[in-house]
Amino acid sequence: MIFSQRLKSSAQCLPSPDGSHIATLFASVVNVRAVRGLEVVNVVKLPPDFAGPVLSFSWSPSSRLLLVAGVDQIHVVSALDTSSSSFHATIRNPVAPGTRPAFVGFGTSDAEICVLSSFGLKFAVYDLASSKATEIASPKFFSPSVACRCFSFRPQTRHLALLTRVAGKDMLSIHGFPARELQRSWASDTVDAQGVVWSPDGRWLVVWDSPAQGHRVLFYTPDGQVFKTWLGPASPPPKDRDYTVGAGVKFVQFSADGRHLAIGDCSRSLCVLGMASVTEALRLQHPSSLVPRDTLQVWQEQIGISHAGPSIHTFLRTAQVVSPAPRPQDSSEPLLGFASIASDSSSALVATRLEDYPSTAWIWDAQAAELRAVLLFHGNVRRLSWHPNIPETLLIVCEGDQYNGIVFVWDPLSEGPRSVEFSQHFSGPSSVRALWLGLDAPSPPSLFLSDSNNYLLASLVEADQDSPWGNQVSTQPMIAARREESPLELVPAVEANLDPRGSGQQKDDSELEDTFLHKQ
C-alpha cells in the first residue's frame, strides 16, 4: 500500500467523478489539484461578496465544472480552464428571502442546476446555457438528507420525474429535456410515497409507499401507465407469514445493469425482482447462525493491542458455526430490517447491512442467490460502498473510537478484509472521510482520505508498484507546498474553454442575468 504526501484541505474537499482531480474550497478560492503528480492545475477566485456558510460543493457529471452554493448565491466555475475568459455562471437569490436551499446540485448535464427550496416551496431547474429557469411547486421532500428521493432523471433521454404533494395527494410529473416543460402529470396510487427512481435502462419508473402502509411498490411505464403493483413476497417463509400486518418497504435498490431490483423491508429477507417481467426472481434470507463452508467465507475481526502505535486489526476465517452479534437490547427504540443495500458495478454481488446485526456485513452472489461472505466486526458498520469502476471491491467504514484512522477493503480473492490504517498521517482524533477515487479499472483501487485540515490518497498496491499519482509519496518532502494556495502561480491549462453542455464549441463568457428574469 502506498500513501501520497499529505496536502492542505478544508471541510469542503472532493475528488472528481473520474478520479483525475481533487478540488478544495478555501475562504475565497477553489484549489484544483491533479491526481497525477499532485500539482496544482488551477486556482479559482470567488467573488468578494460571496460569504458562508457553504451549503453545497460538488463536481459536474463530466468533471469539468465545480459548483459552490451559499445561502443567496450559486457559482458554477470551470475547474481546469485557467484563461481569463474561463466559464463562470452566477445565480443570485435562488430561493425566497429568509430561507435557504435544502438541496443544490447538478442535473443531467453541466449546464443544469437543480435547487430545492426549504419548506417544500419549489423545485427549480436553472439552464445555464439559456439563462432560464423552470419552477415546480410543492416538492414532497425538502429535508437535505432525503431531498434526492423526490426526483430522478431518466438515463439517455434525461427526462425528469418529480414527486410532489398537492392537496394531500402524491403527484408524479414528467418533464422534458432541456426546457423541462411538463409532459405528463398524474396522481400516484400511494398514501405516503417515500421516493421515485428510474431504472438504469430507463424502462421503468418506480415509486414505493411508506413502511406504515405495508408492502406497496408501483411500476410505471415511461408514459405514466401502471404496469404492476407489487404487494409483497408471493410465498413468504413461516417466520414472515404475518408480513401483511407488519411494516413494509424501507429500501429499493436497482442492480447496475437494471435487470434486478432488490427490495428490503423490516424482516431479514431480501426480495429480488427480475425486471424483465417484474416478478420475484429470488429471495435472500439472512440466517441467524452462520455455517462456514467452501463457498461461504466467515471472517471475524481480531483487535490486538500495540504499545507503540494504534491497535492492530486482523481477520480470522472461522471454521465453526457462529452467530452474528445482535443489537443491544437497551436501545430506546427497536430497529429492525435493512439498514442499507448496495450492488457492485458488475451486478454480480450485493452487500447488505441489517439493523438487527449492526456489526455485520453480508455479501451475496446475486446470480446464484447464495451467501458468499460474512464480515463480523467488533464495532457497528457505518457504510458499505462498492468501487464505482472496479467490480467486486468493497469499502467498509465502521464507527467507534477504535476505528478512528482505519477502514477496510474486501474483494473475493483477498484473505479477509484488508485494513487501511492511516491514523499516523492525520493529527488528532478528528473524523476522517474515506471515499473511492473513481479511476478506471486499469488503475489500482485507490482511496481519498480527508479531514477538515488535510487530505491524502492511498493506493492499494504493493510497495514496489507504481501509484496513480507517480512519485509523490508520503516518504518524500512536500515539493508542491510552495504552490498550494497561491493564485499567482498556475499550471497552464491544456483544455479548451468549452460550452458546459459538452458540445465542443467555444463558450460565450457573457455574464448571466442574476435573477433569471425569463422564468417559465
Keywords:
520 residues; mainly beta; six-stranded mixed sheet; five-stranded antiparallel sheet; 0% helix; disordered C terminus
Can you put this structure into words, describing what you see?
The protein has 520 residues and is mainly beta. The chain has no helices and 40 strands. The protein has strands at residues 2-3, 7-8, 12-15, 21-25, 29-34, 40-45, 56-59, 65-69, 73-78, 88-92, 101-106, 112-117, 122-127, 132-137, 151-153, 160-166, 169-175, 182-187, 193-198, 205-209, 217-220, 226-230, 251-254, 260-264, 269-274, 279-285, 297-304, 312-317, 338-343, 349-354, 360-365, 370-376, 381-386, 394-398, 406-410, 418-421, 433-436, 446-450, 454-459, 518-519. A six-stranded mixed sheet has the order 28-27-32-31-30-29, with no helix packed on it. The chain is globular. Mean pLDDT is 86; it is low at 474-520.
For the termini, the CA-CA separation is 54 Å
Figure out the total of helices: 0
Shape: globular
Q: Kindly report the average pLDDT value.
A: 86
Question: Percent of residues in beta strands?
Answer: 35-45%
Radius of gyration: 24 Å
Spans of at least 5 consecutive residues whose pLDDT stays below 50 are 474-520
Helical residue percent band: under 10%
Instruction: Identify the strand order in the major beta sheet.
Output: 28-27-32-31-30-29
Total strand count, please? 40
GO cellular component, one term: MWP complex
Protein name: WD40 repeat-like protein
Region (Disordered): 493-520
Organism: Lasiosphaeria miniovina
